[in-house]
C-alpha cells in the first residue's frame, strides 16, 4: 500500500514539472580583469634594459649610514633631478638622524664601489639581502620600463639596524622623454577608487563569491592603502597589472573561504586592459601602458658632457699632459669603458701631429687644456714668448677641438704672478703627481695612482708614457672601486673654475 502511494505521488509530481529549456543558463556577471602572477613595475618584458644608456651612480658614507646606487640618463633630462632628489632626501634624513654633516666619502682600495647604477632583480631581491649586516639606509634601483620614448626607474629604499629590516619601500619614476613629463607611479591614475572597485570585483569572483551586490566604495583608509599598491602597478603592452598585497582587506573578500585560504607564497596581481581601465588612467598612464617599440632615449656622447653632482658623490680630476700621442687613443678607450672623463693638457706641436686625436678627445666629451707649444718653462721666457707659446697653442687647439680652451698648465709647474697675468686664465696645477715620467715600475705606479687620490684631487699623469698606458685601465677601475668619479676640471668646479693658481678642487 505504501509503495503504491509513493509511486502515485512521484508520477503526479513528474506530470506537474515544468518543461526543461535547453537554452537556459544561470545568471552571471561581467568580470573586467583576470588574476595573473605578480610582477615588478614593467613586468617580465620591460623592453631592453641593455639598450638604455645610463650614467651609473654610487655613493657610500659610513658616518651617516647610507649606501646608494641609482642611474641617471644622458643629457640631464628632468627625471634625473627627481631620481637624484630621492637620494638627496635620504642623505639629508640620515645626516639628521646621525647628527653629522654629510660629505662625499672615499674608501680604501677594494671597497667594491665600482659596482654602480641599476641591476636586474634589485627590486625583488629579499630585503635582508639588500641590507646585509648594515645599519642605516641602502638604496638600489632597477630599470622598470624602456620602450619608445618612455623610461621608468624603480628606486628601492631599505632601512634597518644590524641587518634587521625596519622598512622596505619602492618608488617608480616614469618619464616620457618626448614631452619631458615626469611622474611617480601614483600619478598614472586619475581614479584609484574605480580601480579599487574593479580589482575587488575581479578578486571576489575569482575566489568564489556569488553575490550580485555592487562592491562598496573604499573608505579613506582603504583608498590610501590602495594608492600605495598602485605605486607598484605595472603598465605595458596595453595592460595594467595591479599587485595583490596580503594586507588588502575588503568586506566582499574577508568572508570568502578560498580567499582566506590562499597561498601567501604565490604573489598575484589583477590585470586589466588599458582600454577597460582608460577612465581611471591619466594621459601619462595611457602613454606608459601603450608604449611600444625599441627604446629611443638619449645616448651619451661621453661622460665629460654630463652633469656630475660632485657635492653628492666624491669627484676627482684626472689630467693627462704632453700629448696627444699614438698612446692617447688607448687612454680614451679606457675612459669611455669606465664612464669617466679627463682633461688633456696638450702641447701645440703634438696636436699639430695628431689632429684627429684632438678631435676625438673633444668628441668624447673630455676637456682640452693648453700646455704651451713645446714645453718651455714660462718663467724663463720674455713676455712676447709667453704670449706666443700660449696664444698659438690655444688658437690651434680651439680650431682642432671646437672647444673654447679656457685653462692652461705651466710646464714643470713653473708659474709666477707675472706669467699668470700674461696668460689671463686659470693655471691648473695638481695635488697628486704620479711622476710616471721618472720610470717607476708598473706595480709602483699602479699602487700610488690608486691609493693617493682623495676627493677633489687633481692628479697628474702623462698620455705619452708607456708605463701609464699599460696601467691606466687598472688605475681608473681602482679609483672607481674606491668610490671616486673621474671628471674634467670644468666638471670638478661645476663649470666655474676659479681664477688664479688652482691646485685642487672644492673642499666641501
Automatic annotation (TrEMBL):
Pfam families membership: Polysacc_deac_1 (PF01522)
Record key words, sorted: Hydrolase, Metal-binding, Signal
Domain of life: Bacteria
Gene3D superfamilies the record matches: Glycoside hydrolase/deacetylase (3.20.20.370)
Residue ranges of domain NodB homology in the record: 314-487
Signal peptide: 1-17
Protein name: Polysaccharide deacetylase family protein
Amino acid at each position: 500500500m505504501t509503495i503504491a502511494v509513493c509511486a502515485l505521488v512521484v508520477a503526479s509530481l513528474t506530470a506537474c514539472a515544468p518543461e526543461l529549456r535547453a537554452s537556459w543558463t544561470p545568471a552571471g556577471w561581467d568580470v573586467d580583469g583576470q588574476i595573473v602572477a605578480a610582477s615588478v613595475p614593467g613586468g617580465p618584458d620591460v623592453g631592453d634594459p641593455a639598450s638604455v644608456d645610463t650614467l651609473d651612480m654610487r655613493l657610500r658614507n659610513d658616518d651617516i649610514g647610507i649606501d646608494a646606487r641609482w642611474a641617471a640618463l644622458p643629457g640631464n633630462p628632468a627625471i634625473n633631478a627627481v631620481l637624484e632628489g630621492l637620494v638627496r632626501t635620504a642623505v639629508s634624513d640620515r645626516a639628521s638622524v646621525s647628527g653629522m654633516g654629510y660629505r662625499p666619502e672615499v674608501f680604501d682600495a677594494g671597497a667594491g664601489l665600482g659596482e654602480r647604477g641599476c641591476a636586474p632583480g634589485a627590486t625583488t631581491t629579499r630585503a635582508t639581502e639588500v641590507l646585509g649586516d648594515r645599519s642605516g639606509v641602502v638604496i638600489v634601483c632597477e630599470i622598470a620600463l624602456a620602450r619608445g620614448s618612455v623610461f621608468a626607474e624603480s628606486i628601492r629604499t631599505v632601512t634597518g639596524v644590524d641587518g634587521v629590516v625596519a622598512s622596505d619601500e619602492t618608488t617608480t619614476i616614469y618619464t616620457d622623454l618626448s614631452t619631458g613629463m615626469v611622474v611617480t607611479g601614483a600619478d598614472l591614475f586619475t581614479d584609484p577608487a574605480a580601480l579599487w572597485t574593479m580589482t575587488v570585483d575581479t578578486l571576489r569572483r575569482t575566489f568564489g563569491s556569488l553575490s550580485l551586490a555592487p562592491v562598496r566604495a573604499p573608505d579613506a583608509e582603504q583608498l590610501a592603502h590602495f594608492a600605495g599598491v598602485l605605486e607598484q602597478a605595472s603598465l605595458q603592452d596595453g595592460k595594467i597589472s595591479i599587485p595583490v598585497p596580503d594586507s588588502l582587506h575588503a568586506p566582499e573578500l574577508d568572508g570568502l573561504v578560498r580567499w582566506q585560504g590562499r597561498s601567501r607564497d604565490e604573489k598575484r596581481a589583477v590585470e586589466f586592459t588599458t582600454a577597460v581601465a582608460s577612465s581611471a588612467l591619466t594621459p601619462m598612464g595611457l602613454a606608459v601602458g601603450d608604449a611600444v617599440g625599441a627604446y629611443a632615449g638619449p645616448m651619451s656622447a661621453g661622460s665629460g658632457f654630463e652633469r656630475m653632482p660632485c657635492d653628492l658623490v666624491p669627484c676627482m680630476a684626472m689630467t693627462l699632459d704632453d700629448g696627444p700621442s699614438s698612446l692617447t687613443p688607448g687612454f680614451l678607450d679606457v675612459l669611455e669603458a669606465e664612464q669617466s672623463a679627463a682633461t688633456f693638457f696638450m702641447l701645440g706641436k703634438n696636436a699639430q701631429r695628431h689632429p684627429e686625436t684632438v678631435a676625438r678627445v673633444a668628441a668624447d666629451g673630455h676637456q682640452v687644456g693648453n700646455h704651451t707649444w713645446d714645453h718651455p718653462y714660462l718663467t724663463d721666457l720674455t713676455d712676447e714668448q709667453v704670449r706666443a707659446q700660449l696664444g698659438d697653442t690655444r688658437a690651434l687647439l680651439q680650431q682642432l677641438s671646437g672647444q673654447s680652451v679656457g685653462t692652461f698648465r705651466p710646464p714643470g709647474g713653473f708659474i709666477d704672478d707675472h706669467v699668470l697675468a700674461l696668460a689671463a686664465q686659470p693655471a691648473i696645477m695638481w695635488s697628486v703627481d704620479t711622476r710616471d715620467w721618472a720610470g717607476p715600475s708598473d706595480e709602483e705606479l699602479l699602487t700610488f695612482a690608486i691609493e693617493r687620490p682623495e676627493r677633489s684631487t687633481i692628479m697628474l699623469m702623462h698620455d705619452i708614457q708607456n708605463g701609464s698606458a699599460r696601467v691606466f685601465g687598472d688605475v681608473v677601475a681602482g679609483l672607481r672601486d674606491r668610490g671616486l668619479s673621474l671628471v674634467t676640471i670644468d666638471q670638478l668646479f661645476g663649470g666655474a673654475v676659479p681664477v688664479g693658481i688652482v691646485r685642487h678642487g672644492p673642499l666641501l
